[in-house]
């Protein structure tokens, strides 16, 4: 039996489900055994894989979050593009089976898919209907605009229904990158980096500055509570304990929310927008991760990997994973299967993420981003946001620093990849 190592970043409920999915494949045949290993957060998993590659101890498959795409694409010689893998192994693979938002993010300029879509998400709003009701708000109506987020949060706090209005996961992904896409604002030149490595950051525009300044003001007033860097691990517990009435987080936080928020009625909504920004709401962008295949493994592992990917993309596996986790149904077939099963009717709110990424035809500003060294740039976004919260910089100063420090990394990346 050939063992295939799969390094991933799915902890908690998602990790348990991932293992169940792998077991389904392992039990379905006896030639290959996929061995999943949890390697920590997305940045930790990616760093571990790069170090392992240098030490020639790399796994065949590694799960890399969406913002690692630019770096992985440039790592020629280290990766086997998935379209090539499937072709070489004679396994049928139709990129058109995946949703356009997913295909667009992971294909090269010739339309070839480089990594295997597995878990694509988008951020949404979760809210506590019980707290809304206690505060005299309509529990069936989530806030649509940032003005309403402020107004509702004030009511919630003044009425004593909860201590805080809202929290958020991922300041980088949700309150900066998605905020920009949803308001049709660029975060960089060259179509947010899709046009090539000459791209530079521009995320210190008026809308982003206004939003960060508001977050600082709301944090000072207690309306908003910060959940920490990277994914914002401190945010979900504040929502589960009913300290904060709302949370903006990945659609894939669903599994955790369902498991932990047992004492109150859950509501779902789209991300808020500023109604004085023309073109908003545009559409949100995907997050989550894809599976990259690394070079340097024995041939039989690639044969098994192709078979495993075929299994992962099947409508049954995808629909099950999507419905459990809150990740988007990444293939049309998985979405259709869910409809046939009556899943969306029985689970109001479960289509919010999909409706939001498809709200409008994506523009250059809202189809995603592709920058090299972006994992490090995410770290800079968190650092500068924290500097702003502590009062040592204002929103403009913090975002200017993100651009300056980030562009130094982009210049370095461009030089290395000429
Ligand atoms: O928590 P996930 O898997 O939806 O990922 C969120 C972000 O896209 C990570 O960059």
TrEMBL record:
Gene Ontology terms, cellular component aspect?
Answer: periplasmic space
Q: Keywords, A to Z?
A: Signal, Transport
Subunit annotation = The complex is composed of two ATP-binding proteins (UgpC), two transmembrane proteins (UgpA and UgpE) and a solute-binding protein (UgpB).
Q: Does the keyword NADP apply?
A: no
Name of this protein:
sn-glycerol-3-phosphate-binding periplasmic protein UgpB
Q: Which organism is it from?
A: Paracoccus onubensis
Which domain of life does this protein belong to?
Answer: Bacteria
The cellular location(s) given in this protein's UniProt record come to: Periplasm
Task: Indicate the principal place this protein occupies in or around the cell.
Answer: periplasm
According to its UniProt record, which protein family does this protein belong to? Belongs to the bacterial solute-binding protein 1 family.
What function does the entry list? Part of the ABC transporter complex UgpBAEC involved in sn-glycerol-3-phosphate (G3P) import. Binds G3P.
């Amino acid at each position: 039996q050939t063992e295939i190592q799969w390094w991933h970043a799915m902890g908690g409920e998602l990790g348990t489900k991932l293992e169940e999915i792998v077991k389904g494949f392992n039990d379905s045949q006896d030639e290959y055994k996929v061995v999943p290993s949890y390697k920590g957060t997305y940045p930790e998993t990616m760093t571990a894989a790069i170090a392992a590659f240098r030490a020639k101890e790399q796994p065949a498959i590694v799960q890399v979050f969406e913002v690692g795409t630019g770096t992985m694409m440039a790592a020629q010689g280290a990766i086997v593009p998935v379209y090539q893998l499937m072709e070489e192994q004679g396994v049928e693979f139709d990129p058109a089976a995946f949703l356009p938002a997913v295909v667009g993010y992971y294909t090269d300029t010739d339309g070839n898919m480089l990594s295997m879509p597995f878990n694509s998400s988008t951020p949404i709003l979760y809210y506590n209907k019980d707290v809304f009701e206690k505060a005299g708000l309509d529990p069936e109506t989530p806030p649509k605009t940032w003005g309403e987020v402020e107004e509702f949060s004030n009511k919630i706090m003044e009425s004593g229904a909860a201590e805080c209005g809202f929290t958020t996961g991922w300041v980088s992904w949700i309150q900066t990158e998605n905020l920009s896409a949803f308001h049709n604002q660029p975060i960089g030149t060259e179509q947010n980096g899709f046009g090539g490595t000459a791209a530079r950051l521009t995320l210190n525009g008026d809308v982003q500055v206004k939003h960060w300044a508001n977050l600082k003001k709301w944090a000072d007033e207690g309306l908003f509570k910060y959940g920490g860097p990277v994914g914002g691990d401190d945010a979900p517990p504040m929502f589960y304990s009913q300290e904060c009435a709302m949370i903006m987080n990945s659609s894939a936080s669903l599994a955790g929310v369902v498991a932990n928020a047992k004492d109150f009625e859950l509501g779902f909504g789209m991300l808020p927008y500023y109604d004085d920004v023309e073109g908003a709401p545009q559409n949100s962008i995907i997050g989550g991760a894809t599976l990259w295949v690394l070079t340097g493994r024995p041939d039989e592992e690639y044969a098994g990997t192709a078979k495993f990917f075929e299994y992962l993309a099947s409508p049954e596996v995808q629909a099950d994973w999507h419905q459990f986790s809150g990740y988007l149904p990444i293939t049309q077939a998985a979405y259709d299967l869910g409809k046939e099963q009556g899943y969306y009717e029985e689970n109001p709110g479960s289509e919010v993420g999909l409706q939001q990424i498809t709200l409008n035809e994506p523009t250059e500003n809202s189809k995603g981003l592709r920058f090299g060294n972006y994992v490090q740039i995410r770290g800079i976004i968190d650092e500068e946001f924290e500097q702003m919260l502590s009062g040592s910089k204002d929103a403009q100063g913090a975002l200017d620093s993100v651009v300056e420090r980030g562009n130094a990394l982009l210049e370095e990346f461009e030089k290395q990849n000429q």
